Automatic annotation (TrEMBL):
Keyword Signal: yes
Domain Thioredoxin: residue ranges: 21-229
Organism: Deinococcus aetherius
Protein name: Thioredoxin domain-containing protein
Matching PANTHER family: DISULFIDE BOND FORMATION PROTEIN D (PTHR13887:SF14), GLUTATHIONE S-TRANSFERASE KAPPA (PTHR13887)
Signal peptide (from-to): none
Keyword Transmembrane helix: yes
Record keywords, A-Z: Disulfide bond, Membrane, Oxidoreductase, Redox-active center, Signal, Transmembrane, Transmembrane helix
Taxonomy of the source species: Bacteria, Thermotogati, Deinococcota, Deinococci, Deinococcales
Transmembrane residue ranges: 12-32
Highest taxon in the source lineage: Bacteria
The family this protein is said to belong to: Belongs to the thioredoxin family. DsbA subfamily.
Amino acid sequence: MTRLKGNDSNRTVLVIGTLIAAVLIALALFAVRGRPAAGDGQTVSFDLSNQPVLGQEDAPVTLVVFEDFKCPNCKRFEEEFLPEIRSKYIDTGKAKLVSLNFPFLAQNARLPVDDSKLAAQAAECAFVQGGSQAYERMKQILFRAQGSESEVWASASRLKELAGSVDGLDQARFNSCLDGNETAAAVDADERQAQDARATGTPAIYVNGRLLPSYDAATVGAAIDAALQ
């Protein structure tokens, strides 16, 4: 998993006494009370309305996958592990996969252009026009074209060029959608869901609301099998 980076600049801790330390600990415990930590077995609820879906809507198991198009581990999941998961579970109607955006890598790298978010907006622009099928096609193209995490590769001009390979898209409408930031709010809403679910990186995969410890096909498959029982 590609993880979020913490901010280490203001982490100097000054301990004045046992009483103050005890108070700080008590406050910390109060702040996190009732908030499930990532991977602690708690079930998370998501708003999955109007989201791209791979598979049958009425599948008994739901996979929620948060990804950043600049994330190399997401590319690995999509190209190495997802085909097996799709063949065994999605194409057979046992599970569906819902894709959400968690763009953070460009900000982590302090790039001059937030192309993590721009790429997510491009995928959402494809979804607006062509639904889940167009989103899936655009997603595949974006991961195939993926460049370095430390460089801006998903520029607006490059994204428009890539969108030309998605059958059925009106290029002028796509360009207007991307240039006008028409899907920025949808991407922001996805990111808030990732933060609320306390996702710590990408790909973050939830099976029926439970965060998995890994994104390999064996781990995902075992979780789906357990959910089907």
